[in-house]
Structures are given as structure tokens and as C-alpha cells.
Amino acid sequence: VPVSVICSPPQNYPLYIRSVPTENELKFHYTVHTSLDVVDEKISAMGKALVDQRELYLGLLYPTEDYKVYGYVTNSKVKFVMVVDSSNTALRDNEIRSMFRKLHNSYTDIMCNPFYNPGDCIHSRAFDNMVNSMMMQVC
């Protein structure tokens, strides 16, 4: 059950949320908003080291009984959160990292679009296709 979310700073409102399947979407919203607090804690704990190393991948934020929640933050403090089923043992840390890089690259493409206003919700067919293909690889 992969979920992908992009949130904008500093208000932490979602710019993009996609979950497959969609029946427990409200539960995932809660999980994502809870994880944003963990992302903020990790960023403040890493402090200057995060800026110096340019390490954007935050790794496993926290595991729950059913899911694992991963985090990623861009240089502009936009937060990416990914929730995956904890029974998926085939998914390694480097694969999660590369999925975040793909998300970040696609997000950068959207930001380069002159018709996109930063802070608006993301409505892009190309971005949707990329996220859907990434989720199908995980399932």
C-alpha cells in the first residue's frame, strides 16, 4: 500500500497526495501529518550537518505495525513522505532513496513550468503518470 505525499513549508499543507488503493485514505492523511512532525524533529536534530552534507534523504521516519514511513526534504524545505506496507521486504533502502530522487526530479520539472505557481496543488498528468508507475513497481 504505497502512499506518496509532497508538502510545502512552512504550513505543511499537502501539495500532492496519492494513495493506492484509496479506501483508507483518511488513515493515511493522519499518518502523513504525524510523520511531518518527525520530519521537523529530524531536520532540527541534524541542524547544520544536514545543510553541510546536502543529504536530503531522511530515511525511515518510523515504523508502525502495518507500514513504514520514509521522509525526504529538499533544499527549499519541501517535504516528501512515502508510506509503504511493512510486509514488503523486497524494498531496500537504496530503492526508496532512488524513488525519492525520481519524485524530486519530477517535482523540479513542475517547478520549472512557468504556468505553475509555487505553493499551488500539483495537477500534472506527467507527474501523475510517474507516481503511478513508481507505485506499481512497489506493489
- Separate helix tally: 4
Low-confidence spans: none
Structural class: alpha+beta
Q: How many E strands? A: 5
Could you give a short account of the major beta sheet?
Answer: 5 strands, antiparallel
Shape: globular
What is the rounded distance between the termini?
7 Å
Beta-strand fraction estimate: 15-25%
Mean pLDDT across the residues is: 83
**Topology as a string of helices (H) and strands (E):** EEHHEEEHH
Order of the strands making up the biggest sheet:
2-1-5-4-3
Query: What is the CA-atom radius of gyration, in angstroms?
Result: 14 Å
Subcellular location: Cytoplasm, Perinuclear region; Endoplasmic reticulum; Golgi apparatus
Keywords: Cytoplasm, Endoplasmic reticulum, ER-Golgi transport, Golgi apparatus, Transport
Family: Belongs to the TRAPP small subunits family. Sedlin subfamily.
Organism: Aptenodytes patagonicus (King penguin)
